[in-house]
Amino acid sequence: MCELTKQGLVAAAVCSMPFEKLGRTQAKVLGVPDLPLLMIPHPLGGITLDVVATRADVAAGQLVKLIREKFA
Amino acid sequence: MSGFASELTLKGAAIEAVDDFQSVNDLYLARGWSDGLPIVPPSAERVEQMLAYCDRPWDEPVAKIPPRWGEATPIRIAANAVMAGCLPEYFPLILLAIETMCEESFNLYGIQATTHQCAPLIVVNGPVARELDINAGHNAFGPGWRSNATIGRAIRLALLNIGGATPGTGDMSTFGSPGKYSFCIAENEAASPWEPLHVERGYPLEASTVSVFSAEGPHNVNDHESTSGKGILKMIANTVAITGTNLVTLPGGDPLILFGPEHAATVAGDGYSKMDVKRYLYEATQVPFNRFSDEYIERRMKVLYPERWAADGLDARAPMAGSPEEFVVIVAGGSGKHSAFIPTFGHTPGVTRALRRRDGSYARSVRDFLKA
Questions:
Q1: For residue B68, which residues of chain A lie inside 8 Å, CB to CB?
Q2: What pTM did the predictor assign?
Q3: Closest CA to B141 of B79, B188, B195, B190
């Protein structure tokens, strides 16, 4: 995602809550400290497909907002 | 102050602290620069002494350590080796181990940051293992041996301080592992009836090597009753064939089987070569699908192995490795009717590299690295 951002594309990483610090650290050390993280609840494993869909909804809302802001 | 110390100060590469053991330790613990245990203060003089066994430029990175991708220069690694309590003679092995585990194929980023409990295990082979008195015998994974304890600790401190494997931030392991304090042994080549690991991996017997594996802690295999190689192998295989390892769904992970010398002698005495052992284990460790939960079968096993599922249903079996060759067979430990299984991260083959002099020849001794 950092490389895509450097190439001028709109990019973001999906990240569950306990991994936010790791995600922010990675974005920083990979040269894109303001890389958007689409934050979703944990966990990702051991959940039903219905719950996966709710996770996707949470991320999708943030993604739409991000794209609108970039092209406003 | 030595010239070296002046250089560090001029570059802003050093910090000043009260010259007192407690004060330095308080400072390091407060800044998160320790594994939680007291450290030896890495004074410029001590770091310079450590670098006596380094034939590389001291400030040129030999690797970048994830997840922070910090530059692992000999100076930084030497500081961590001092902190761990290493003798300077250990330094060439530590440098090689860091370089080896930072090769892309080892996936150190995943190993450092994963929720799994794996840690890089260092296995040393060859004459340098004996020169440095790295324990391969009784209690090889345990305390009481300076080389094992401090070489492993130096590597862990480098993974923490240079690599940023801070718990909860860079290291997301659910449990962690005692192997994240120190995890270094030598193969017990003298007690092995088979060729040692480094020879199997293409190096000459006189070479000294470091092998790194993404290892869980060792799980014991107690077998005081089997008197045949077949019996011992069956007991080991049934200890390996479990549902909860990464290996069972991520083959390609080089599962380690550590034969105690007594078990190894019995197995080899019945005519099993190392390759025979691997072939047996590959077949006998496959886990029947019916041991997994219904959800696990539905969501993972059917997806991973659709052809096996279609052919055999609940009787289908999942392998612990992609091929027999992936099983790593090592002889280690002392007397006793025990062996050990070390599961790994999966999908992460171990890497073996030799200690070499700058001209590319194999180092025969750590003295080869002494500065001229």
A1: 25, 29
A2: 0.95
A3: B188
